[in-house]
């Protein structure tokens, strides 16, 4: 991922971690005495990789050219070539052997199996792809060997997944070979340095709980439910602690990376400093990160509250939010407001929420007093949350309702039998989408995030957010929408006072944060409408933000919440030329170009 991992993103450290279970797929050569699942390809003499994928697929001697769809992208659907392309077959055989020789510390996972499903599953149906197979490396040595396989077979596409929380299709998913970093799950706290080493397969849910026992905290994701550490960190990392300690990448001490040539290196400010610069915000462009070492901070009592208001209180809530923004200069205080619109069983539900967070006991001069006075909800105090065994994920996950469901990695539906539909082969893509579980029953939820970067908020900007969120809400029922949310997450002007030089531009005196929109809907046929609606709404908000002096074209887009067609130049701005040179050094053959994500080019 730029290392690559989740949601585009990194990965984790080497590993004494071991794969659970004893799943093994042997070579698919019919002359392999250990092969019990090899299938021949008619009279062609080719061998399928069915053992490593799915033995029930109906293999034909030749692809079906009855419709002769020569104008289609060969990766847009899956015909028999999907299973028999020579480079994929040979790459798969080598990966099977790597896993076999590891005594299953690493695992090769068949298409359609439970382990495969866990490996390719993503938070949202729309960001999932049907991979030919999946592999879960169990240590750095095996990952190095896997990278060398990709070097040898330079047409094989792949992706690296951490948490799978990205909404952009193909960013951490693939129609090629899926690498799951789930086994890179080490969490090691060093009491002398007070740093924490986090494996690239870890989710914030487990990290917060683990570090709490040491009465320490990290600058981490504001939402914990299913969010991978790697993708969050590789993109930059906005946090509830950003006003105090900067972004996640400002708190990175060291990373371990498996480079595209199969070499494993460590990068920090002292060694491989160019790579360390590039990885901090550079996405999945430079290799696969296996671990992140981050700073930790003392953990004491924490206050957290979520206030919910009926939409008819919008004017008063906006006024209270603006008063908080104008008056509160306390770095320990944070709020996240949101206009939330739902369509539940065909009925609209509209509300405003304001999440309150204070990194410590509430002071006598309560920064949230005006908002609390407006609320009919019971005040919730969490001032005794300093016990080591408290689940801090609950304290930091207060944005979950904004764009998260409970992360359930078992959401890949089983494929039906291979069959003909309207005279053409049924594409595996058609049925192997990942239906996630939403709050009410099981639904096939599709989603996108989109962002306008702003330095601050004004009353007119809040009014425009109100108007545009209601416009999206008005279309929910007609276009199978589930939720339309636009948030308000203010930061202090001093937010980047502790910033470090990194790939993603963020400098002292240039505050900015993501004004985030999230839409969820059902049905692939509605994708173009909702993506178009999001672009329209964000453009309208952008115009008002520009007129109010809240944004300008110098602010970089935030890759973790930007739409897939965002130009890479808009993300890295003046840092792009330097990143191009670094990428040419570490990935001269464009191996990471076979993954998704915001691709830093090898040359201008």
Account of the protein in words:
With 604 residues, the chain is of the alpha+beta class. Helix content is 25%, strand content 18%. The protein has 17 helices and 19 strands. It has helices at 81-84, 86-101, 114-120, 140-152, 204-212, 229-235, 242-245, 273-279, 314-327, 369-374, 392-396, 400-403, 428-431, 459-473, 527-547, 568-572, 576-586; strands at 107-109, 133-136, 158-161, 177-180, 187-190, 195-199, 216-217, 252-258, 264-268, 288-295, 297-298, 303-310, 333-344, 347-358, 420-421, 424-425, 446-454, 481-488, 513-521. The strands form 5 sheets. The chain has a 6-stranded antiparallel beta sheet. Helix 2 (86-101) packs antiparallel against helix 4 and helix 14 (459-473) runs antiparallel to helix 15. The longest helix has 21 residues, at 527-547. It is globular and about 65 Å long.
Secondary structure category: alpha+beta
**Morphology call:** globular
* Helical proportion, percent range: 25-40%
Taking the sheet with the most strands, its summary is: 6 strands, antiparallel
- Cα distance spanning the termini: 21 Å
Number of helices: 17
Kindly estimate the percentage of residues that lie in beta strands according to DSSP: 15-25%
Overall mean confidence score, pLDDT? 80
Strand order of the largest sheet: 12-14-13-18-19-17
Strand tally: 19
- Low-confidence runs (pLDDT<50, min 5 residues)? 1-80, 379-443
- As a whole number of angstroms, the C-alpha radius of gyration is 24 Å
């Amino acid at each position: 991922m730029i290392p690559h991992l989740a949601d585009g993103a990194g990965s984790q450290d080497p590993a004494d971690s071991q794969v659970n279970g004893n799943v093994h797929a042997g070579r698919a050569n019919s002359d392999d005495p250990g092969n019990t699942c090899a299938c021949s390809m008619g009279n062609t003499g080719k061998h399928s990789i069915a053992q490593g994928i799915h033995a029930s697929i109906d293999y034909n001697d030749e692809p079906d050219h009855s419709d002769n769809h020569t104008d289609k992208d060969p990766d847009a659907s899956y015909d028999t070539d999907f299973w028999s392309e020579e480079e994929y077959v040979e790459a798969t055989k080598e990966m099977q052997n790597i896993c076999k020789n590891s005594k299953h510390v690493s695992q090769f996972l068949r298409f359609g199996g439970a382990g495969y499903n866990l490996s390719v599953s993503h938070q949202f149906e729309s960001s999932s792809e049907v991979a030919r197979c999946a592999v879960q490396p169990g240590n750095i040595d095996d990952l190095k060997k896997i990278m060398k396989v990709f070097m040898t077979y330079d047409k094989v596409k792949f992706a690296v997944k951490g948490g799978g929380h990205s909404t952009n299709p193909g960013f951490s998913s693939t129609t090629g070979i899926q690498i799951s970093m789930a086994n890179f799950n080490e969490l090691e706290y060093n009491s002398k340095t007070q740093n924490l080493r986090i494996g690239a397969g870890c989710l914030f849910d487990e990290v917060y709980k683990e570090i709490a026992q040491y009465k320490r905290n990290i600058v981490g994701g504001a939402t914990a439910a299913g969010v991978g550490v790697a993708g969050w960190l590789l993109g930059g990392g906005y946090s509830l602690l950003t006003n105090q300690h900067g972004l996640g990448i400002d708190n990175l001490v060291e990373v371990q990376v498996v480079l595209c040539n199969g070499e494993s290196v460590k990068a920090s400010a002292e060694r491989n400093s160019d790579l360390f610069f590039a990885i901090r915000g550079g996405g999945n462009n430079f290799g696969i990160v296996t671990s992140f070492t981050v700073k930790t901070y003392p953990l004491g009592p924490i206050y957290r509250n979520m206030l919910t208001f009926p939409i008819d209180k919008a004017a008063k809530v906006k006024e209270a939010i603006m008063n908080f923004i104008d008056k509160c200069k306390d770095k320990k205080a944070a709020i996240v407001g949101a206009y939330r619109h739902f369509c539940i069983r065909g009925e609209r539900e509209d509300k405003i929420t304001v999440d309150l967070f204070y990194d410590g006991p509430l002071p006598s001069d309560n920064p949230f007093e005006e908002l609390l006075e407006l609320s009919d909800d019971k005040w919730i105090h969490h001032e005794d949350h300093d016990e080591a065994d408290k689940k801090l994920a609950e304290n930091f996950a207060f944005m979950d309702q904004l764009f998260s469901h409970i992360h359930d990695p078992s959401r890949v539906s089983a494929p039906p039998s291979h069959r003909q539909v309207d005279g053409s082969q049924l594409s595996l893509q058609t049925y192997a989408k990942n239906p996630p579980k939403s709050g009410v029953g099981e639904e096939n939820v599709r989603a996108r995030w989109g962002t306008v970067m702003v330095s601050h908020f004004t009353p007119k900007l809040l009014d425009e957010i109100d108007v545009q969120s209601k416009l999206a809400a008005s279309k929910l029922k007609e276009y199978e929408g589930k939720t339309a949310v636009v948030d308000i997450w203010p930061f202090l002007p001093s937010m980047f006072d502790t910033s470090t030089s990194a790939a993603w531009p963020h400098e002292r005196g240039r505050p900015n944060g993501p004004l985030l929109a999230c839409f969820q809907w059902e049905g692939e046929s509605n994708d173009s409408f909702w993506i178009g609606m999001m672009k329209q709404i964000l453009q309208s908000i952008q115009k008002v933000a520009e007129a109010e002096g809240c944004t300008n074209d110098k602010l970089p887009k935030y890759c973790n919440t930007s739409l897939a067609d965002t130009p890479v130049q808009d993300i890295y701005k003046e840092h792009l030329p330097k990143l191009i040179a670094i990428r040419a050094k570490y990935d001269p053959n464009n191996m990471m170009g076979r993954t998704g994500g915001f691709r830093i080019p090898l040359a201008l």
